[in-house]
Design brief:
Length: about 180
Amino acid sequence: MSAPARPCCLGLKRFALSFVVLLFGVLLLVPVRPVQAITAPELRGQRAVQEIVPDMHGLDLKEKEFLKADLQGVNLSGSDLRGAVINTSLLQGADLQGADLSDVVAFASRFDAADLSNAVLTNAMLMQSRFTDARIEGADFTDAVIDLPQLKALCSRASGVNERTGVSTRDSLGCR
């Protein structure tokens, strides 16, 4: 035979059960905001940039997607690339002088020997991207996220002040 339940334990169990029921009831009343998953541009009704031409100077390319794009030597100077996604793309020798790359996501892209003079890269996410021999005079990297080895290499040659923002390249990189 089992021992009869003690009254103190029964009260505690009832309290715990009531608390759990109440908690779930409150959770059911809390409005849930829909969450959007990050998906391929085709699934979102957007398209990655399909037509890449040698001269894309001054174009409005806000929030466009360049995925595994070959932009080597392409003239993107003065272009508006705010919020663009430039993942695993080749930009070696590209001309990005004065381009606005604010809020860009450029994961694992190659900017080797690219001209980023006076470009604005504020809040850019540049993880695993490379900037070997890139020209950065006057570029503004304020609040950009850059891998430490690349940051050190950029600091070793950082100079100038951005014409648009008035921020020095060294200060924007946090160079010592």
